[in-house]
Amino acid sequence: MNNTTTDLWGQDIALDASGQARVAASGELVLTDGVETGVQDIVLRIFTRLGGLFYDTSFGSLIHDWILEESTAANRAALEAEIIMRVEEDPRVVVGSVRCSVTRWDETSITAHVFWRFIDEDTPLNLVLRFNKLTMELVVEDVQPRNDSFAACFPND
């Protein structure tokens, strides 16, 4: 990978589906690369409650606030707006490219689809967010995974 790509995307420790660091067979930590870094950053922002990090209180989201709410037009619009706003906070996301749609909201779960494009990427990215109201879990799945390991499931705090 060239330095320009590294400068745009950066690198991070790759996380597995349980949020733990991925470790190679050699015992070394696996690093994210390219678009995978950006997707992981967005997923972490969505999972993290806004203000939950003492060293960066502006990182995170408020999507957890809607898990137990009723399905109303106002609540759907507010959840979609929150997701869009948090994805757009990533500086690698093309301004105006983020779309979100709540496709299911009932007494047991909420499902939302979010779409966006990164700078210098022609292919839009897609995540499906599923909130399980019974187990209080949020599952985020990469609709077009670039590798088999990217899906995350973290319990809601």
Structure overview:
With 157 residues, the chain is α+β, with helices and mostly antiparallel strands. The chain contains 3 helices and 5 strands. The chain has helices at residues 3-9, 35-47, 73-88; strands at 99-105, 109-116, 125-132, 137-142, 151-155. It has a 5-stranded antiparallel β-sheet, covered by helices on one side. β3 and β4 (137-142) form a beta hairpin. It is globular, with a radius of gyration of 16 Å. Residues 147-157 have low confidence and may be disordered.
Short description:
The chain is an alpha+beta fold and 157 residues long. It has three helices and five strands, in the order αααβββββ.
